[in-house]
Fold:
Amino acid sequence: MDGKGYLVTNNHVVAEAQNVAVQNIDGKEFIARVVYSNAETDIAIVKIDDPDFKPLPGTPYSFTKKTSDLAEPIFTLGYPREEIVYGQGYLSSKTGYNGDTMSCQIDIRADRGNSGSPVLNSDGEVIGILNARQKDAEGVAFAVQSRSIFNALNDLKVKKGGDAALKDIKLNTRSSLTGLKRPQQTKKIEDYIYMVKVN
Structure:
């Protein structure tokens, strides 16, 4: 979500967790903790809380509240296995399962472990967070729309009003990836994508 150690994932990924750690693309693990969770929207925010973590520069991708167009190309980066995996597809419906207006349907391969992966458009804007797949339909998946991330951050700031660190968190709304080819985009993004590990 940002370079300071705040990450967004799905609530269902961390809901039963007693301990949380995150792993970066280099295989380094960091201790983390859940600072926000919402079962209704399936959004959670995790904070890396490890002395070995070094903050990264601001994110190259951005977050958008606007609704994406049908057939818009999208891609994801996630951890269905121990290494980061790229997937691509398109937006197939502006609503999610059973017409859920807080999510959208995407046509993309999604495996166990892809939950919490960002869904980005061609300009490098996060349009959602992948959170489910339809078991009886190949390539049909769903993503929580990114406006829920904005809402989650606002809720977190209200609940933890005295926490000065939270006041500095701002979702980037201007992507520096526009116009780049996909391999260049993914290379700039991959350092910001973490595998969430729970037990």
User: Anything to note?
Assistant: Residues 6-55+147-171+184-198 form a domain with the Thrombin, subunit H fold (CATH 2.40.10). The longest helix spans residues 147-159.
